[in-house]
Specification:
Distance between the termini: 47 Å
Largest sheet: 3 strands, parallel
Number of domains: 1
Helix content: 25-40%
Number of helices: 3
Strand content: 15-25%
Strand order of the largest sheet: 1-2-3
Number of strands: 3
Order of helices and strands: HEEHEH
Length: 115
């Protein structure tokens, strides 16, 4: 998903900030692993934020497994001000998505105070 998203962003118009949002209820299981993607290729200058959906299955599969939040923090997110938002199950997804989007756009509020 990250490689595909980065390629799609690179084919679009130039912009001052590029952000990919990756949501998941489990670890990467197809394609390249997130930690193996090159930060200097299509992901150069792209911020990747994560939204983790916690379920019974996402809480770790055995000894030595990172929990899913730590997996996203250590292997998925990257770039300036990257962060992970957490949904407590699929019923909490809309709330977590709204919170994540508000956090992403609050940095866009640029203005000047007339004095």
């Amino acid at each position: 998903a990250m490689a595909t998203g980065a390629r799609a962003l690179s084919q679009g118009p130039a912009c001052w900030k590029a952000t990919l949002d990756i949501s998941g209820d489990g670890k990467s299981n197809t394609g390249p692993r997130p930690q193996d993607l090159d930060d200097f290729g299509p992901l150069a200058d792209v911020t990747v934020n994560g939204l983790v959906i916690l379920t019974i299955d996402s809480m770790g599969a055995g000894p030595g497994d990172d929990d899913l939040v730590e997996y996203f923090k250590n292997r998925v997110i990257r770039g300036p001000d990257a962060f992970v938002e957490v949904a407590d199950g699929f019923d909490d997804y809309a709330r977590a998505m709204e919170k994540k989007l508000l956090r992403e756009i609050e940095a866009l509020a640029i203005g000047a105070l007339d004095q």
